[in-house]
Amino acid sequence: MASSSLAQRQTILTRTVLIGMAIIFVAPLVVAFLTSFKTPSEITRVLTIPSTFYWENYAIAFERAGRTFLNSLLITAPAVVLSLLIGSIAGYPLAYMRGPGGKLVYFVLLTGMLVPFQIVQIPLFFLVQRMGLYDTVPGMWLVHTAYAVPFCTFFMRNFFASVPRSMYEAALIDGCGPATYFWKLLLPASTSGLAALAIIQSRAIWNDLLFAITLTTSDNARPATVAISGFASSLQVEYGPLMASTVVSIIPVMAAYLIFQQSFVRGLLGGAGK
Amino acid sequence: MLFQIFSGKKIILAGREGRMATKVGNMEKMYRSAAFGLALLGSTAAAYAQENYEVWHYYAAGSERAGMDAMIEIGNAASEDTKFTSVVIPGNVVELRRQLQTAFLGGRPPALYQSSMAFELKTFADGGQLHPLSDVWAAIDGDAIFPEGVQRVVKVDGVPYGVPFDLSLINNVFYNKEAFEKAGVEIPTDWDSFTAACDALREAGYQPLGNAGGTFWSLYNFYAALVSVIGEEGYYQMARGELGFDSPEFSEALDLYRDRMVSCYAQNWSGKTWTQTADDVVNGDTGMFMMGIWVAAYMEQAGFAAGEGFDMFQAPGTVGKAIFQMDVLAVPEGPGVDAANMFIEAVTTPEGQAAFAVPKGSLAPNINVDPSVYGYAGATFSRQFADASAANAVLPNLFFLLPTDLGTEFGVQIERFAIDPSDSVKAELIATLEGLRQEALAENAFIQW
Amino acid sequence: MAFKSRMSRTDWTHIAFLALPTLLFLVFYVYPVISSIHLSLHDWDGFSPRMRFIGLTNYTVLAGQPRFLHAVLNNILWVGFMLIVPTGLGLLLAAILDRGIRGEKAFRIIFFLPFTIPAVAVAAIWRWMYEPDNGLVTTVLNLLGLGGLSQNWLGDPAVVNLSLMGAVAWWTTGFAFLVFFAGLRNIPTECIEAARIEGATPWQVFWKVSFPLLWPSTIIVLGMSAIDAMRLFDVVWAMTKGGPAYSSEVLATQMYDLAFGRFDMGRAAAVAVYLFIIAGIIIMPYIVYMSRRVQDSEAE
Q: Quick one: which H or E segment has residue C242?
């Protein structure tokens, strides 16, 4: 029938687009992956396949960057939790407040997103140093949480605003206080928003370079991004170890993605009506 | 401090939502103690870190890194109780300056750091940030072991502020031997033979002369034309700000550069990094490449041996001269000064200097270093440098003799000219640079070399 | 009586919730911005103890400088680009995958993968891909017989911005894809079923039903794209440093070069303030407008 062949054609077209885009997305990564196994002389020719599995690159990466990966984990996990928390704590009142006061605070917080890093670099250094948190992991937590305020607030406020008011009103009638509502009802109903934000924050904090360079100086707190960029000093790039450490650094962020995206499958708004 | 922030919030809540406050408070208590515990750990570690003295540099990878590590090892071997740690700042001199700024402002500078020569040293020295090295300089007899050209660029008003360690020549042209053979090229000695080589290579299907994108490389190529026209005296006049960019000599130099070098440049050179162009030479796509001697170390690391795969000759117009680029170690004022002095004494000995130079592929500035430590390439450069020193024909990299703003703009404009050597671009180049020169003269920014 | 005290109780709760974020914001944002504005009124090389007050000179000089104006133009082009390409592509991919297709999990991973890579690795990979003679892009074009189209990707001032945009699109589409996909999955299936029962084609379902419900996602993606376009730094600096000859320069890279490449902190701070103002002018009205739309759509 006409409609089914149209549907068929549409499916073929769709699949072609998907596969085409997938190839474009994946090709550079495949090149990077192959490069991580090449010897230095093989690297001069970009598009060849390595002759053997040259693990040396990974060994070099591990030796120079191993400790930094641990630091990255120690920094990222708590910082993500804290930034989700702070975004939710700020987003909740801003989504539910009536009147101009709330709007004003919201927009002022948002302007924080416009601030480029270079503006804050030096004052930030002073602040952190005076607090005694220079080159420490907790210092990085504080900084990442503070700089997450605008975006996480933005994100969670918009997410909360899209949750139906009916749930809130029902809770109030039941005698639930606003804070209880937040912890017991709103947050649990917002898992998909929190999950998406968790993915974004994991990736942002894990891949942060500028804060790391400014506020850490030794293996006490130096995260992996610094070590990775160390392989790419602007005079000579050590492509082998660079690609090896990049491949490894993808893993945690992808893990966060795979874990958190489970909650995208459930249709939560439908469930929250209960 | 951190605790106050958390405890303050708890107080606000305590008066209100009773049970809620406890729940939130408990969570915060958990975070608070965790933060406290880890802060304690962190600060203990930091306390230990201060026993170490840091050497900051940006040689993060490859042969550069190997040289740096070797030198720091020598510095460490020299004394038992002080330990020097190598701290890599990823990037190059710009990133290092950024880190230094926060370090200076925050009062925690490293014991030593890698600095460019001449004007950069002066900027920091004028700011009062650097420790004058007169004492240790006298102890190592710096005036005797370093050539005059080198001394000039580490002293500000006669006081040494930098320790030479990483010297590279930038007026050599490297070539692929097989390409020269196949094209039947004779090694050029002047501009005419250079152009002949260009034409022959092009006819044989090679890209004649490689170049790379970036602020420095086209400028370094340009020095060959510049020195040909204005000579050494003119070169120093330029460094002092006495020779205008609108002068007929400078215009002649630009024309010479355009006609003899830019016309030979490989296709798409501006889209490549210097290592990519070096790869082209290694792979036999490009015939010649004028670049600093670090490229020799890079090519050797890629398995392309000096004397077999490639060789070098001095750029036309600069034969018998040595234009050099050098990084030095500078010592910030601070608690690390005594340790730094010990470090300096160790790494300025012939062994110390060679320890860096050989893996990195640069030259040791100390004239007492035995030339036999170098391989084929290093020995050639060493001879070139020694001959030029004897003839008093050693020229420091002009980029670093000029005020930083002018030097950087110079590099950018020359690259722009090399991409598009039209008359309008040439006119803009001259106007922009001359404008900056006038500004610098007004501010008395030039150094009287 | 009871109602009134509940109202103010809610207000107090709101204030309590906002206390910590606001404090952090004041300390970590407001103070540095004020400090920067102060710095922009001076002439300082970043290292000497002397700072010379020069008033608005930095601002006036920049306003007349071709290099600065070119960077502003570049940023605006980037905003236009980021609003359309990665966003549109992410939406398209999310919409296609939302319908449920074989191998969906694999596609979801693939489209998000580039986004997980740090900027420095993106720059290194694409620096390579764009090698004008032997890089992947040129080679593929040659294989497809389109060799005539290959350019000096990063070395030709006329092309370099497009090349950079291509790399950034590859990198950041994953973000739009993620947010749109989450948003689509959040739409109650009842709405979609209802439309389908009424005989709407998949694309009609999408445009008439799904897309309007995606406003929260859309505002986030568009807002962040515009902001990232204004603040763009890492990839550009690592790939071209704003070159060749300033052709790919954006305000953030220019700021960095002025501060640490030219020892001119005051002027760099002035560029930063300009960036902040321009970003505010371009982006804030949009956010105000979009927020109102979200408020309206939730009222339905």
A: none
Task: For residue C29, give the H/E element and its range.
Answer: none
Question: Closest approach of chain A CAs to the CA of B113, in angstroms?
Answer: 14
Fold (topology level) of A56-270? MetI-like fold (1.10.3720)
DSSP assignment of B2-22: HHHHHHHHHHHHHTSSHHHHH
C174: helix, strand or coil:
helix
Q: How does DSSP classify residue A186?
A: I
Could you report the predicted ipTM of this complex, rounded to two decimals?
0.86
Q: What is the token pair recorded at C132?
A: 């004008």
Identify which of A103, A179, A228 has the shortest CB distance to residue C118: A228
- Cα torsion at B247, B250, B254, B259 (round to 10°)? 100
- Cβ distance of A154 and C220 shorter than 8 Å: yes
pLDDT per position as a tens digit, B362-403? 999 988 888 888 889 999 999 999 899 888 899 999 999 999
Cα distances from B311 to residues B170, B295, B320, C199, in angstroms, run: 15, 11, 17, 76
Model pTM score: 0.86
DSSP state letter for C56: T
Q: Where are the domains of chain A?
A: 56-270
User: Are β-strands B172-176 and B286-290 bridged in parallel, bridged antiparallel, or unpaired?
Assistant: antiparallel
Torsion angle (degrees, nearest 10) of CA B57, B61, B64, B67 = 90
Coil, strand or helix at B366: coil
| Residue whose C-alpha is closest to residue B323's, from B150, B99, B90, B106 | B150
Residues 6+ apart with CB under 8 A from A216: A135, A140, A222, A223, A226
Closest to A244 (Cα-Cα) out of A14, A79, A97, A34: A34
Architecture of domain C78-249: Orthogonal Bundle (1.10)
Cross-chain Cβ contact B91/A233 below 8 Å:
yes
Question: In terms of CA atoms, which chain B residue is nearest residue C20?
Answer: B9
Cβ–Cβ gap C45/B127 under 8 Å: yes
Which sign does the torsion angle of CA C89, C92, C94, C96 carry?
Answer: negative
Q: Which of B305, B364, B15, B298 is nearest to B166 (CA)?
A: B364
Q: Specify whether the CB–CB gap between B247 and B335 falls below 8 A.
A: no
C176 within 8 A of C91, measured Cβ to Cβ: yes
Cα dihedral A233, B129, B140, B76 in deg (nearest 10): -50
Both tokens of A116, joined, read 């480029």
> What subunits make at least 3 CB pairs under 8 angstroms with B?
A, C
Token pair for B167: 């010297």
Cβ atoms of C12 and B16 closer than 8 Å: yes
**Strand bridging mode B394-396 / B322-330:** parallel
* pLDDT digits (tens), chain C, 300 positions: 444 454 577 788 888 888 999 999 999 999 888 988 999 999 988 888 888 899 899 999 999 999 999 999 999 999 999 999 999 999 999 988 887 778 888 898 899 999 988 888 899 889 888 989 888 888 888 888 887 788 889 999 999 999 999 999 999 999 899 888 888 877 777 777 887 788 777 777 777 778 888 877 788 788 889 988 998 998 999 899 888 999 999 999 999 899 888 888 899 999 999 998 998 898 888 877 776 766 665 554
Tokens of A134: 């220079």
Give which of B238, B256, B258 is closest to B247, Cα–Cα.
B238
Kindly report the CA angle at A148 between A142 and A153, in degrees rounded to 5? Answer: 130
Interatomic CA distance for residues A226 and A213, integer angstroms:
7
User: Do residue B2 and residue A133 have CB atoms under 8 angstroms apart?
Assistant: yes
C291 to A94, A106, A166, C295: CA distances (angstroms): 11, 10, 20, 6
Contact call for residues B299 and B309 (beta carbons, < 8 A)? yes
- Is residue C65 helix, strand or coil? coil
Domain ranges for chain C = 27-64+264-300, 78-249
Measured in angstroms, the CA of A93 and the nearest CA of chain C are apart by 5
SS3 B301: helix
